[in-house]
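Example A, followed by Example B.
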Amino acid sequence: MKKIATLILFAFFTHFQLTAQCNPDIEPPVVAALNDLCINFISPGKATIHASDLISFSSDNCTAKNDLVYAIRRLGSGTGFPTDTAGNPQTQITYDCFNYGVQQLEVWVRDEAGNASWDSSLIVLIDKFDFCHLDPIWGNGCAKTEFNELITETTWNFDLEPPVDFHPCLPHPPYTSPCLQQMFIGKTATTIRPSLNKDPLNGVSTFDLVLINKHILGVEPLSSPYKILAADANNSKSVSISDVVELRKLLLGIYTDLPQRESWGFVLKSFQFPDPANPFATPVPGTLEYVYQPNLNENFIGYKVGDVNGNAVANAQAPAEERSTTSLRLPDPMLLPGQTAQIPLYFSESAELLGLQFALEFDPLALEISGLELRGRLITCVMRRFFYRQTKIAFGKRFWF
């Protein structure tokens, strides 16, 4: 009997505490909304979303769950608890085919005291049964070099307004592709931006430095605006000796990537340069600002940064880069510990060279290279050196132009 009295007393105090807590009730309810729901259009191309369909969890400190009131509206389209024109809770939203794709909503809950809170929900409207006939709103386009070669590993980036991501519910090919082939874009403001940042040495050699130098000196200007853009290695919107220095560091291995640039740049193919000899004179569009139109077909021209003679490999079908080679010879003398010797390095045959790159492999534990002396016609050439040391092998990298 004593135990029963204790339980009755506990229930009395619990009821008393709840009454005090709810008088007045100033604490809003708690709500968690569902996300990533894929919802099909039904005939005739409509989809109605109810607020109660998007509730994952809700509770309140005073109001019973069955007495909570739910409402819904498009994200950012109003303030306060959503109501219709008559002042009643807006419990549903109807979408049509124009709203195909990702949509964001506010899911609200209100208790009996008028306290309210909300959570955001992301849904995806799809047309599995083809009520909307959406074919006209798919886009096409490719990224190619100025020589019409597809750039295979182009990544397509989409910045939507409002900013949301594409969703697995939506049928679209991988983002990495040379072309947008029937890529769903949707009826919304979108920025389409191709990019590729891989293999920065692709197509870059000492010969490119020779050509950039000639362009700077006015001896032999680069022949297209895309080549001039490619020569801007430091993204300064100009071509100068600083770009040569940046590319030299890349060739020597001091850089693994160019600090200020991705390895490829892109320009809308439809863009006409006002001054092809100075492409930096006006902003160059590297993105497409897309607003809904029945069909999109827009291509991009891509250029490999640092490659001004056009021999970068854009895809597996592109022809291999052609470079001539010649042999370097040197004697193999016997050196005693502590002995210093000058070892001549020469070509096996005479050749007219614009530039030269080579590397010497040696064991740094057994040999030290103290310097390099240039003689004859090479004395006026630019020379830099860089040693990459491993445990047992070192490479002395050299180039001149």
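Example B, a separate protein, is given below in the same form.
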Amino acid sequence: MKVILICYVFLSYTIKTGEFKKIMIEERIINGKDALITDYPYQLSLLFNGLHRCGAALISNSAIVTAAHCVMHSTNCKYYSVRAGTTTVNSGGTVVGIKRIVSHSKFDKASMDYDIAIAILSRCLSFGPTVRSIKLVGAKEDLPVGTHVNATGWGTTYPGNTVLSTHLKSVELLVIAQNVCKVCYGPDVITSRMMCAGYLSGGKDTCQF
């Protein structure tokens, strides 16, 4: 199984040609299962004023990747930090400050295109069983439709719930063809910078619309 970072996943419950859904970005791990940080040691909690804001992934001992919309309200580094090496949100592990945040220059908050940001930590993290960088997919590497991927985080665990899980969750998804996503959400919603993963029958995803 290949594990990759999925910042945002688009899932359809039913395919209805001509009926497009408005995307509402929320942090969710629908029908996920409890996970341990030792299984996903790259998983981080991005903190804003000391509290969990979004998930992030460690890409080196001093750099992380997250979604640009998670830092769009303020790029003042003094408000941000990351918590590494813990299964539980808002407790345990190691908290490190952030000294620089760079969002993609083409990030569009209306369409969520180019929704990616890099942050540099104020000090390097020490690697161990609970802290390790993620293996990134190559820029020219395509994931075939049907590839199994994992999404992890502390999102809400079922539709309609607004309370985040305190325990790290993971959900296994399948890569879905872009043209299928465009039928589900409209040709102007899904861009070539996005990937789709989930189940057409519904029930498992990282975002609920």
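On Example B: The first strand starts at residue 33 and ends at 34.
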